[in-house]
Design a protein that fits this description.
Low-confidence stretches: none
Shape: elongated
Mean pLDDT: 92
Radius of gyration: 22 Å
Structural class: alpha/beta
CATH architecture of the largest domain: 3-Layer(aba) Sandwich
Distance between the termini: 19 Å
Number of domains: 2
Bound molecules: iron/sulfur cluster
Strand order of the largest sheet: 3-8-9-2-10-1-11-12-13
C-alpha cells in the first residue's frame, strides 16, 4: 500500500476556458496508475463527458441565499426594487413584483425594508457533489447551478473529499481538472496542491492570461509546469511563450500540435490516448505525464 505522504496532488489549470485542459486531464487519467480524479471546474464541469462516471454517492451542497416575494402579501409599492443594488427585482407584465433568482445575491436588504413582510429568503439546496466510479478510477465531481455563489467552497469540498479518499485508499495521485481563470474557484483548487500544470494556447491573450495565472500560483510557492496546446497554430507566439516559460523557470512538459483527433476523441467520449494510442499526440501526452511524475518524485 502506498503511504499518504507520497501522494501527489496535481491541478491542471488555464488562464481561460477552452484551452484543452480537460482533454489533457482525461489523457493523464487514462495512463496514471493509483490515481483519483477531481473535476474542480464546478461552474462548467465537463470531465464527466469523457470519464462517463457511474454515480455512487450524492451529497447536497448549500448554495447562496435567494429571496422571493409572497404575492399574497405584496402591495406592489416598489420600495424593494428601488433599494436592490443588484437590479434583481422586476415587474411582470401585470405590474407584479418578482425577484430573478439568478440575479439575486442574497444580501437580504429587501427582506428588511419591505413594509409588509412580503419577502423571505432561503438557502439554495440545488447544488450537489458526487463520488463516482469511472473506467480509470474514482472521480469526485459536482454540479453547481447557474447564478449560484460559493463555487470556491464547493471546489474545496470536492478536493477535501478526494484527499480523504486518497488517504483512506492509498492513492498515489489526485489529478484535478481545475476551473479556468484566476478567481476564487481557481484559488480554491490551487491551495494545497503539490504542482500546477498550466495549459497555454499560443495567442497574445492566452499568453497574457497564462502570465497572470503563473503570478497567482507563484504566490502559493507551488511548482508550475506547462504544456503549450496547438502550438503550431501560431508558432511565433508559441516561441514567445516558450521563451517566457524558460525565463520564469516554468518547465515545459510538451508542445501539442493542432490535431482533429482531440475533437474526434471527445465525440467518442474517449481520451486521446484511448482513441488513438499510436498518434503523435498520444506520444506527447504520455511523455509529458512521465516527465511530470519524474520531476515531482525528484523534487520530493
Ligand atoms: S417592498 Fe414589499 S410590498 Fe413593496 S413591492 Fe417589494 S415586496 Fe412588494
Ligand atoms: S436579497 Fe438583496 S440582491 Fe436579492 S433581491 Fe433582495 S435586495 Fe436584491
Amino acid at each position: 500500500m502506498i503511504e499518504y505522504y507520497s501522494m501527489k496532488e496535481i491541478t491542471i489549470l488555464s488562464g481561460k476556458g477552452g484551452t484543452g485542459k480537460t482533454s489533457v486531464t482525461a489523457a493523464f487519467a487514462s495512463i496514471a496508475e493509483h490515481a483519483i480524479f477531481c473535476d474542480g471546474d464546478v461552474d462548467a464541469p465537463d470531465l464527466h463527458l469523457i470519464l462517463a462516471p457511474e454515480i455512487k454517492e450524492t451529497h447536497p451542497f448549500p448554495g447562496g441565499r435567494k429571496a422571493s416575494i409572497n404575492p399574497e402579501l405584496c402591495t406592489d409599492c416598489g420600495l424593494c426594487r428601488d433599494y436592490c443594488r443588484f437590479d434583481a427585482i422586476h415587474q411582470d407584465i401585470s405590474g407584479r413584483y418578482y425577484i430573478h433568482p439568478v440575479q439575486c445575491e442574497g444580501c437580504r436588504l429587501c427582506e428588511r425594508i419591505c413594509p409588509v413582510g412580503a419577502i423571505s429568503s432561503e438557502q439554495s439546496m440545488n447544488n450537489f457533489w458526487f463520488v463516482s466510479d469511472t473506467r480509470f478510477g474514482k472521480l469526485v465531481h459536482a454540479n453547481m447551478q447557474a447564478g449560484e455563489e460559493n463555487s470556491g467552497k464547493l471546489v474545496t469540498t470536492v478536493r477535501n473529499h478526494a484527499r480523504e479518499l486518497a488517504k483512506a485508499e492509498g492513492y498515489r495521485f489526485i489529478i484535478t481538472d481545475g476551473p479556468p481563470g484566476i478567481g476564487c474557484p481557481a484559488i480554491a483548487s490551487i491551495t494545497g496542491s503539490k504542482a500546477v500544470l498550466m495549459i497555454v494556447e499560443p495567442t497574445r491573450s492566452g499568453m497574457h492570461d497564462a502570465i497572470r495565472l503563473a503570478e497567482l500560483v507563484k504566490g502559493f510557492n507551488i511548482p508550475i509546469f506547462s504544456i503549450i496546446n496547438k502550438y503550431d497554430v501560431n508558432e511565433e507566439v508559441a516561441a514567445e511563450i516558450e521563451s517566457w516559460l524558460h525565463s520564469d523557470n516554468i518547465i515545459l512538459l510538451g508542445k501539442i500540435p493542432f490535431n482533429e483527433v482531440v475533437v474526434k476523441a471527445m465525440i467518442e467520449k474517449k481520451s486521446v490516448i484511448e482513441f488513438d494510442p499510436d498518434s503523435e499526440l498520444s506520444y506527447i501526452l504520455r511523455s509529458s505525464w512521465t516527465k511530470l511524475v519524474s520531476e515531482l518524485e525528484n523534487g520530493q
